[in-house]
Design goal:
heterodimer; A: Porin; 18-stranded antiparallel barrel; two-stranded antiparallel ribbon; 3 helices; B: alpha+beta; Immunoglobulin-like; globular
């Protein structure tokens, strides 16, 4: 046999050999099929009744809005299926895919949309499938990523693709699904990760239109019951450079301590964090620099009859309105900080945070929760007090009661601080394993801060209403989590 | 004779393949070998004088995932101790067992978050051996962040 045929055969044998070796090392067959696929997901049906967001008239989307005067109400059912697929050829590697079908609103064939000014925009197409005949276009890819353990470096893994990412500070900085990379390290008392997220990518031939997010986060177990964590994020936003003459940027320093304290009455989980934010001209439409802090302290105590919790959050703010602070009569160097992007507190509250009852995206305590996305944690800052509780009234039923006081850290243009008070009551019935039903509602008493407040409008510049409605929302959620 | 034209790619291929084979054949962490748990030991307990280790110490999961937690109990010399009672107290949901005795020096179980608990938060599991309690904080995040 000539060398030209012998050596390729040798190489081929070695390649086959290494495949066998790899397969044996990973305890799987050489060509696995059925043993690598894991499926999970959740299915839900919910009902929503609310006077939040007169979205069909003034924009803002169903998930947000702000108190209006004599505003209309909305009521609807919708449904959604999420499926998660995990391809696991070994313990060292997986490819994950998460898809969503919905949300499909009952009877909703072709929902209209709204443009950036809040005007209705008719949408032509097959719709989401909620109408008669179904046949909706309603499938979305939520996540898809590859994750594997890096060889020779125990504890180190790589993740790349589209995945969910959020900060550890009640999602005050960011939380969403992104395309990016992540290097994760978890060994012993240390867990850390580096993350890179790409927000915008224009022409691939230039970097001038990129918007990139870099982050590093680490936590250390200090002792048997306490851990400490620190985070640094940096956002370089060339995409929104526009006519600013410089590249907008933001950075954040954050620190957190979590501890479980034993008391004679029961254990208390204490969590405290602080974030400092500084940057210049984010989203390209703000010409000044911004600085601010977000501080939170919470304690949740487990008692014989349930859990009781308190949380206080303070976000620094500046006095005035959006118009004044962002380019009007006030100092342009004092634009708002980026510290209330999402406000996703444990157990709510329903209206001012992510709603735990019906899982509405953002309460109006978040930047995205309102049509204009410009207030609460922004501009005037926030002082937020939350009291929360959960009581297992039956073996399969728990009752949850939450109250919150919402106040601006600095006054608005009218000199007002008081945003409102919210009360929530909801119950959860665990019908079968993984099948549960949640129902209840929230009521928000609007304070003076909303009256005649130009920030409380879709553009953030329109006239506010003199007598804003109190806000209410109640609903039901039937959900099955599987996998 | 092996000509020089083939020698380089052959040598390169052999080095790569042997390296890969070695990596694939040798057991490593996560491939079935029982390994030493990294990280500090907590103790000694009273009255047994045991030392406790927990793996993993940092857990971040989507609410429907069930992380495996291992508690190892050893004596002062680092040798595994049999038949030591370990109790588990989760802040929510459930752990495989409320209490169990060590076999081979360890107790292994899985944590399940509370039903319908899809809101982000930090839960914890307390593993107790005699008078030493070790808290494992479990960060629970949404499966999909975008609502």
């Amino acid at each position: 046999m000539s060398a030209s045929r012998t050596y390729p055969i040798i190489v081929l044998c070695l390649v086959l050999g290494l495949c066998v070796g790899q397969a044996r090392g990973q305890n799987i067959s050489l060509f696995p099929k059925e043993e690598i696929l894991l499926v999970g997901g959740d299915f839900r049906i919910r009902s929503v009744n609310s006077n939040i967001a007169t979205a069909d008239q003034q924009g803002g989307g169903e998930n947000g809005g702000f108190p209006t005067q004599n505003g209309p109400t909305k009521a609807f059912f919708d449904t959604r299926l999420r499926l998660y697929w995990d391809f696991r050829p070994s313990d060292l590697l997986r490819v994950h895919y998460r898809m969503e079908i919905g949300d499909v609103r009952y009877g909703d064939g072709v929902p209209n949309g709204s443009d950036v000014t809040g005007n209705l925009v008719p949408v032509i197409g097959p719709g989401s499938g909620g109408g008669v005949g179904a046949d909706g276009v309603n499938v979305e890819t939520k996540n898809m990523f590859l994750e594997f353990a890096v060889p020779f470096l125990p504890g180190l893994s790589f993740k790349g693709g589209i995945f969910g990412y959020g900060d550890r500070y009640d999602f005050s900085i960011l939380a969403d699904d992104f395309a990016g990379f992540q290097l994760l390290y978890n060994r012993g008392d240390v867990a850390a990760h580096f993350v890179y997220l790409q927000f915008f990518e224009g022409s691939t031939r230039t970097n001038a239109d990129n918007s990139s997010w870099f982050g590093i986060d680490g936590q250390l177990q200090i002792n048997a019951a306490t851990r400490a964590a620190a985070t640094f994020y940096y956002w370089l936003d060339q995409e929104h450079k526009g006519t600013l003459g410089f590249t907008p940027y933001q950075y954040w320093f954050g620190g957190e301590v979590t501890s479980r304290l034993a008391t004679p009455y029961g254990p208390i989980e204490i969590k405290g964090y602080g974030i400092y934010n500084h940057g210049e001209g984010y989203f390209g439409r703000r010409h000044g620099s911004n600085s601010g802090g977000n501080f939170s302290l919470s304690g949740d105590m487990s008692l014989n009859f349930g859990t009781l919790g308190l949380q206080v959050q303070y976000i620094t703010g500046a006095k005035g309105s959006k118009v004044q602070l962002e380019g009007g009569s006030k100092d342009q160097n004092s634009i708002s900080s980026w510290l209330g992007y999402f406000s996703n507190f444990y157990q709510g509250p329903e209206i001012t945070s992510l709603g735990p009852i019906i899982d509405v995206a953002d309460g109006f305590g978040s930047k995205w929760g309102t049509g204009n996305g410009f207030y609460n944690g922004d501009y005037n800052g926030r002082l937020f007090l939350i009291a929360r509780s959960a009581f297992p009234v039956l073996s399969t039923v728990s009752l949850h009661v939450v109250g919150a006081y919402d106040r601006a850290a600095a006054s608005n243009a009218n000199g007002d601080y008081n945003r409102g008070v919210e009360f929530d009551v909801w119950a959860q019935w665990n019908i079968l394993p993984k099948l549960w039903f949640r129902f209840g509602g929230g009521y928000y008493l609007t304070g003076d801060w909303w009256k005649n407040n130009t920030d409380a409008s879709f553009t953030g510049r329109g006239p506010g209403v003199p007598h804003p409605d109190n806000v209410w929302q109640f609903g039901t959620r039937l959900q099955y989590d599987f996998g | 004779m092996i000509s020089g034209k083939f020698l380089s790619p052959l040598a390169f291929s052999m080095v790569v393949c042997l390296g890969w084979l070695t990596w694939g054949s040798l057991p490593s962490v996560g491939q079935g070998r029982v390994s030493q748990i990294p990280g500090p030991r907590y103790g000694p307990t009273t009255p047994g004088g045991y030392y406790v280790q927990v793996e993993p110490r940092a857990v971040a999961i989507a609410y429907m995932q069930r992380p495996q937690i291992t508690v190892a109990v050893a004596n002062a010399a680092g040798q595994p101790v049999e038949d030591v009672l370990v109790t588990f107290t989760p802040s929510e949901g459930a752990f495989t067992t409320a209490s169990s005795r060590t076999r081979g020096g360890t107790v292994v179980g899985t944590f399940t978050a509370g039903a319908g608990s899809d809101s982000p938060r930090t839960a914890y599991l307390v593993a107790t051996v005699e008078d030493v309690a070790v808290t494992i904080f479990i960060d629970i995040v949404p499966a999909v962040f975008q609502r």
